[in-house]
Amino acid sequence: MEHLRFLSILFAIIVTQVSSFLANETTYLKNDFTRENEPLEVTDAHLSTLFVIEKREIFANYFLVDMKRDQDIYGGPDFVSMIIQVPFVFKVYGHNVQEVFVLREGGIKSADPNLKWNAIPLEIKMFDEFTFCQIRFHYDDASFAIQWEFGYDNCRNGTELSFQLNINADGRIDFIYKKIPFGNLKGVADNFGLSFEFKVPGSNDSFDLGLQLKVNETNIKSNTAIFSVPMLLCTNYLNRNSCLCEASIANPPLLCYWCPAIGICSSRNDFLKETWDEYGCEPRNYHDPGIDNPDSADRYPMSFEAVAAISIFLFLILVIGLVLYCRRVKCNCTCLANGLLTPEEGSV
């Protein structure tokens, strides 16, 4: 009975932990900091990028890079847009990037003319004497931050507008708006966001990924943070090996297919679905529920609930086996004590 009581307690603990895990499950679409008070989350039409808009000052202060040190000042009013090498390689929709073109008016874009992408936290409109003052750079092994400062008369009376763009080694790009004049950006800046042109190899077809936000519809105030989170897509794998192998061991794993005719990786349910059909990437002479009925297809081969259910089922089998084993041992011991079995017969 002691063995059974111990196993019952152990089983209850495991069930409680698994239930707690499933109740608090998060996916790659949401970082932990997005769970509290449900900040605004927006994705583009192709589900390539998630924007998390967080207006609580605690988050802006946490992710803001302190650039008060003089050594962080890179250029003053005479600064011109230029190419900067980032101290690490980061991913832009599957492409390795280490050089960026820093724009004087705010934002960055690709230094490679064959790779069309940009990240614009704010594109300032010059008005009256409200002008660019200085730009600051700060970097470490896992992030690179750029801060733009604007004001009147080259900020002689202080900075009126200050914002940062932070590039992270994991591909996340943060927009941090520390100081915004007049309450919000309406009338101060143009539209902003992140943009990438996905070109289908060997064709003139292209898709606009990323997300463009409208200033007049997005209430950006001081101490607002926007996190641009790249979503896990088959299209981010650019060769056959990564498409079929690396994608399958991603977290969470992806079920991807490679089209050798035009060199694209796709789930066959993403924005390349029509392209996949158009170029005859694969003859469909078999039944595939994920293709015939995309709305009912699961994005991933197995859900967290399925894994948990299987784990519990296996654990139950183990418990039953241990209980039967313990009962047999106890029975044999009793028989040995009463002389009903010889030691050889009672051995397990």
UniProtKB/TrEMBL annotation:
<dbReference type="GO" id="GO:0016020">
    <property type="term" value="C:membrane"/>
</dbReference>
<keyword id="KW-1133">Transmembrane helix</keyword>
<keyword id="KW-0812">Transmembrane</keyword>
<dbReference type="InterPro" id="IPR031152">
    <property type="entry name" value="PLXDC"/>
</dbReference>
<keyword id="KW-0732">Signal</keyword>
<feature type="signal peptide">
    <location>
        <begin position="1"/>
        <end position="20"/>
    </location>
</feature>
<feature type="transmembrane region" description="Helical">
    <location>
        <begin position="306"/>
        <end position="326"/>
    </location>
</feature>
<protein>
    <recommendedName>
        <fullName>PSI domain-containing protein</fullName>
    </recommendedName>
</protein>
<keyword id="KW-0472">Membrane</keyword>
